[in-house]
Amino acid sequence: MLDRTVMNLPETAATEAQLAVNKATSSMLPLVTSGLTLTIDNNTLIDRVDLTIDEPGITIIMGANGAGKSLLLRMLHGLVAPTAGAIHWNGQPIGDAARKRQAMVFQRPVLLRRSVAANVDFALALSGPSDATRRDELLALVGLLDRSRQPARLLSGGEQQRLALARALATSPEVLFLDEPTASLDPASVLMIEEIVTKARASGIKIIFVTHDIGQARRLADEVVFLHRGRRVEQCNAASFFDSPTSEAARAYLEGRIIL
Q: What mean pLDDT value characterizes the chain?
């Protein structure tokens, strides 16, 4: 269990301003997929997934290894094209306009070979002139302001992931995709990232988060989507999922039993 007294990110009165988010996330939602399918070399990896995500907060995508979680996330963000089916954001097919209102953080962050500050400046420049004040606010939010002049490559794994989050938030996304951002990190780093994610949720960002960590899902989820063999077998509020899952696959997963 994570001890939330171990470490806390700096609290500032400007936290919500730091994120600079348009709180009207409903302009992007609902996210609706119909018959979403991905087949590669005659192997169906995502199998006719129907989803409607229309509530704010954090939607956690869970499932065993190979269930298709990360693939589904990439499809929702437009990085992988389906072989069948459709994705719509507020009734509109996914395209460049929708992607500009989204950001994604991967399990292994890819950073520029520049300073910590320059990495955030680069992201800020994508949506307008670079702003040193905003950059410093974002670095303070993720606990890296004192490392701003340091080369990003010298950061620890947890610090690099926090920098990746700062870059994502610099684009003022309405939807933030997170693909197992705390995998292989130590408990203190996990805690810090979860605190950043919680603040992002409070600011109005819709978060769609892939994790295999059941404890993390319990701490963060407002809604759970459970995948099994590329299919959506459950989608419900978090309390219902953890208290009374309806599918045998989900029950086995939560009990730590092997799912075949």
A: 90
The DSSP secondary-structure symbol of 131 reads -
Quote the CA–CA distance of 236 and 224 in Å, as a whole number.
Answer: 6
Distance CA 182, CA 162 (A): 10
Do residues 188 and 228 lie in contact, with contact meaning Cβ atoms separated by under 8 Å? Answer: no
Which residue's entry shows tokens 């400046």? Answer: 121
**pTM of the shown model:** 0.90
Q: Which residues of 220-247 are buried (b: 16+ CB within 10 A; e: fewer)?
A: bbebbbbbbbbbbbbbbebeebbeebee
Query: In Å, how far are 101, 116, 169, 200 from 135, measured between CA atoms?
Result: 19, 10, 10, 16
- Which helix (DSSP H) or strand (DSSP E) does residue 179 occupy? strand 175-179
**Domains of the chain by start residue, with CATH:** 15-255 (3.40.50.300)
Closest CA to 197 of 178, 214, 184: 178
CA–CA gap between residue 79 and residue 73 (Å, rounded): 9
Is pLDDT larger for residue 19 or for residue 114? 114
Dihedrals φ, ψ of 213, to 5°?
-90, 105
pLDDT tens per residue across span 113-163: 999 999 999 999 987 777 899 999 999 999 999 999 999 999 999 999 999
Contact (CB, 8 A) for 21 and 202:
no
